[in-house]
Write a structure and sequence with these properties.
This protein is of the alpha+beta class. Helices cover 45% and strands 12% of the residues.
Length: 537
């Protein structure tokens, strides 16, 4: 792991932090209780009841989904209170964090009164969580304290320790991330069959298939061979990246927070997408589709031949398509075993080995109680992920299968309560990759299409050797934090112009776009990244 190389010099210093010192630093009313319990066994801790009720405040995402229960007050938050809180004389208060405004909301809470602040601050984005640390948001943790109060969580996540230290201080708790195989590109199999087409062996053959989709107009007069949308800063240019990718290029350019407009692979990808646009092979008004909703609508209405997204039972794009077009059928292509540009599978991004990254608020009086909550989640994952047997799930052999459409009061919250248990793990893990694939097939795919997840897993194996994670800095890139929104807006303007322009106009427009993008703040980002990389290397 790259961060291991970056931070290894600090780990020796971190181990010198004593348990008693860390506990003393916790402050508040918890100190006496913790000190008094020093000689208690793990069983004693599990059975411990605070003599006076304490409170811990747990943040939880609010995604604003229609029909969902109040994220701070529902059957499962009450379950946590009854099964965990009441057992230890702890009041568990959940704090709503709007998913699309999380950084702003956390900053507002941290700037407000201490009594209103959550005891946990979290984020999926590592630079963001590091920026919180840079503001002094977290208290230093002692591994001995974590192991004592959350032994099972500690044991399962200790392999992620390298990602939890900053400048020698353990500030973070990292959730594990099981591999998932539900991001797929769906293809109209009935179109392939009608046109007597075989699966493509490379990108050039894929283009020929898209042209045949365009010409046959099987989706009507306004057939869209492949959907395309505006997206965010995470622009897929992996096909044109050098392999192996150097650490320095990875540090400077491989970033899902800011687009690498000035990098040669991005230029080549933009030229490729420009070709697709000018050939009429992608959504003609893709630049108006910010949230992929127009692409989804084009696919489920029967207008589009290819559509990429996370496969899920809600929204169920496959069955919605079949309701609108009864003869429709879908599949996914087999991964290209050999890419002609490389002589091996196309390199691609590997998800970070961690999921949610969190830390305990510097003002938290009872870090030991927070760790007890992490341990409770760890030990009750099956119930929190699946609910009540015969009500919210049934067993299919060794695999729990959620009941579709159950609307009772004890229904699971969004995505099987994920926003509650994501503190400790990013997805369901049955302890065996084959069981996980089967479980994901039943969880994500509609009946009859489980093969899509199974095929996606096989595709994953084809290119697994050629995946790499993004470089992770041990300090925040402050210029990026300050200019991320501005650069995203700037990128979207130039991306639209470059993909939609005439091919002969591309090179000149690209040079002008790069100059403008650098002046808008990207040059500062590159300079700061280079300085941080040189220092850390």
């Amino acid at each position: 792991m790259k961060l291991k190389r970056i931070l290894s010099m600090f780990l020796v210093a971190a181990t010198a932090v004593t348990m008693s010192g860390a506990l003393t630093s916790c402050g508040g009313g918890g100190v006496a209780n913790v000190d008094k319990n020093e000689i208690m066994s793990r069983q004693d801790i599990e059975n411990y009841v605070y003599p006076e009720q304490i409170e811990i405040k747990i943040p939880v995402y609010d995604r604003g989904n229609a029909g969902q229960a109040d994220v701070t007050n529902n059957y499962w938050t009450n379950y946590v209170q009854t099964e965990f809180g009441d057992k230890h004389n702890i009041k568990v208060t959940f704090i709503s964090i709007p998913r699309k405004e999380e950084v702003t909301v956390f900053n507002q809470l941290l700037a407000g009164k201490k009594e209103n602040q959550p005891d946990i601050i979290f984020n999926y984005d590592y630079p963001t969580i590091v920026s919180f640390a840079d503001q002094g948001a977290f208290q230093t943790l002692d591994e001995a304290m974590i192991e004592k109060y959350a032994p099972h969580f500690y044991e399962r996540t200790r392999g992620l320790n390298d990602y939890t230290y900053v400048n020698g201080d353990k500030l973070f708790l990292a959730a594990t991330r099981p591999d998932a195989y539900n991001y797929v590109t769906l293809v109209r199999k009935d179109w392939m069959d009608k046109l007597n087409l075989s699966e493509p062996a490379n990108e050039d053959e894929l283009v020929e298939i898209l042209k045949k989709f365009r010409d046959a107009k099987l989706g009507g007069e306004n057939t869209i061979p492949k959907t395309f949308d505006l997206g965010n800063a995470n622009y897929g240019n992996y096909r044109f990246r050098p392999y192996p990718l150097s650490d320095e290029d990875n540090a400077l350019y491989s970033d899902i927070t800011v687009a690498s407009l000035t990098w040669e692979p991005t230029k080549e990808q933009l030229k490729w997408d420009n070709m697709l646009y000018n050939e009429g092979l992608i959504s003609p008004e893709w630049y108006l589709d910010i949230d992929k909703s127009k692409a989804r609508e084009a696919f489920v209405s029967g207008q589009a031949g290819m559509y990429d997204d996370y496969l899920a039972k809600s929204p169920d794009v496959i069955n919605t398509l079949k309701q609108n077009v009864p003869d429709a059928d879908v599949t996914i292509f087999t991964a290209y075993a050999i890419d002609p540009n490389f002589g091996h599978p196309t390199p691609s991004r590997r998800e970070n080995p961690f999921g949610m990254v969190s830390g305990i608020n510097a003002n938290c009086a009872h870090p030991e109680a927070v760790m007890m909550y992490f341990e409770w989640l760890e030990n009750n994952l099956f119930e929190m992920q699946n609910g009540i047997e015969g009500v919210t799930y049934t067993m299919d052999g060794e695999i729990p299968v959620l009941v579709d459409g159950y609307e009772g009061e004890d229904r699971l919250n969004y995505n099987g309560n994920k926003d509650m248990w994501c503190l400790v793990i990013e997805g369901r893990d049955l302890g065996d990759v084959n069981l996980n694939v089967q479980a994901q097939a039943k969880s994500f795919a509609p009946d009859g299409y489980e093969f899509i997840i199974e095929k996606s897993y096989q595709n994953f194996l084809v290119g697994d050797e050629y995946r790499y994670t993004d470089y992770i800095f041990s300090k925040p890139v402050e210029s990026l934090t300050a200019s991320a929104t501005t650069l995203l807006d700037n990128w979207r303007v130039h991306k639209t112009e470059l993909i939609n322009c005439k091919p002969e106009e591309f090179d000149a427009k690209y040079e002008a776009a790069c100059a403008d993008y650098l002046a808008a703040g990207y040059q500062q980002v590159l300079d700061e990244k280079q300085k941080l990389y040189d220092a850390e290397k």
